[in-house]
Amino acid sequence: MGEATIWWIRRDLRLRDNRALDGALARGGAVVPLFVRDPVLLERVHAEAEKRTRFLAGGLAALDRDLRARGARLVVRSGPPEAVVPAVAHEVGAELVVAEEEFSPYGRRRDGAVSRAVPLELTPGLTVHHPRDLGTTAARPYTVFTPFRRAWLARGVPGRGDLLPAPSALPALPERLASERLEPGAASAAFPPGEAEAERRLAAFAHGAQAGIHAYGEARDRLDLAATSALSPYLRFGMLSARTTAAAAREAGADPAARRARSGADVWLSELVWREFYQSVLWHFPFVLRMAFGRRLRHVPWREAPGDLRAWQDGRTGYPVVDAAMRQLAATGWMHNRARMIVASFLTKDLLIDWRHGEAWFMRHLLDGDPAANNGGWQWAAGTGTDAAPYFRIFNPVLQAKKFDPDGAYVRRWVPELARLPAACVHAPWELSPLAQEAAGCRLGRDYPAPIVDHGAARTRTLAAYGRSLDGETRGG
């Protein structure tokens, strides 16, 4: 092939604003787009994550179509990257491998092993600003979001002119360069994979005739409205770059006269910065994937309650908003962020079950299951993380539901047993008399479970359990 460069694709399934691809093209020779089916990730991370695995497969198929439209194609091989990548480099005569840098502990170990066998150049792209570029004046990493956000904004928000265009043509690869067969996987009708769909959704949300970003600050917590971008699965696999989303937020809020639009764009940008905050936490403190960040809450006396855990997983807790969210997750592989907070609080605070069980369940089912964001969200809810909710903040699931699903539309969609209940009782069906339950076709204990825990009593139990952990730490226990 002559002088060649390998573009090693991991979490950057896109052609637009891809600095790894741009770096490979800049060398002037042939570019080999390579995806490695890593057995460690497939067997340990994605083994049970069927929806996410299909979404990834669909994204790879979409990327291959985009490459073929430009004269190239995707090369797929299976095996340990430290063996596969050097082997392909030798096969095509590549002198360099270029890849977008990853921040997980495994990713960093893997890249170190590959770099010892073949020259590897890592480029930015997973985040807008690299974690090592953001620190306090004492050069320490931020562990609180607000100062992190200030430092992040101070480094600048990219604009549309900063984005790299997708190449119009790519060098062809010889047919003798073998590739494994691509699966035509897809996640669900709700989330068609691929860069084109990601860009369509972003355009509709940020710039459409009824751009959702303008009302985002007011409506983003409503469970019954389609008021969020729903872009997280696409960001998870880099079908859309972090810089592209940040630039869209900047552009949407650029009109000084459009106060509502500017406010919504600022709030959405802050949510994007939260994503980068959790990537930074994982970069600087990789131990968070194994234990609580907060040392004082590493010994909470969690309950071993497999029956309660199973009821939570199955959406059979007797708390409608919790059950609706868990059933949405099982059906679609996605869940509204407010719902994630509600169900996480319920598992850790109402049921007093270790947050790591919830973290693992989410990673099994979420299309956007990302180690950094998932871990950060769960530790926030449990009160054990860096910038965590105080341990004594315990969501009341009924009040949360009444506030963010006021007419019960979200609950009725995902818990059809409750479809005939009046709005006043749909979030607390136990308030209906047995006769009224019969009239609505939903008798507790028969058609829908009674609550598996009393929220008030659970709150008292949890505060005592967390207090014992804090007391033990104070005494050096």
Number of domains: 3
Highest-level CATH class of the largest domain: Mainly Alpha
Return Rg in Å: 24 Å
Query: Do you know the CATH topology of the largest domain?
Result: DNA Cyclobutane Dipyrimidine Photolyase, subunit A, domain 3
The counted number of beta strands is: 5
What's the CATH H-level homologous superfamily of the largest domain? DNA Cyclobutane Dipyrimidine Photolyase, subunit A, domain 3
The major sheet is characterized as: 5 strands, parallel
Describe this entry's structure for a reader:
- The protein has 477 residues and is of the alpha/beta class.
- The protein has three domains: 4-126, Rossmann fold (3-Layer(aba) Sandwich); 128-162 and 196-284, Serine Threonine Protein Phosphatase 5, Tetratricopeptide repeat (Alpha Horseshoe), CATH 1.25.40; 295-471, DNA Cyclobutane Dipyrimidine Photolyase, subunit A, domain 3.
- Helices cover 47% and strands 6% of the residues.
- The protein is built from 20 helices and five strands.
- Strands 3-2-1-4-5 form a five-stranded parallel β-sheet, sandwiched between helices.
- The termini are far apart.
Condensed summary:
The chain has 477 residues and is an alpha/beta fold.
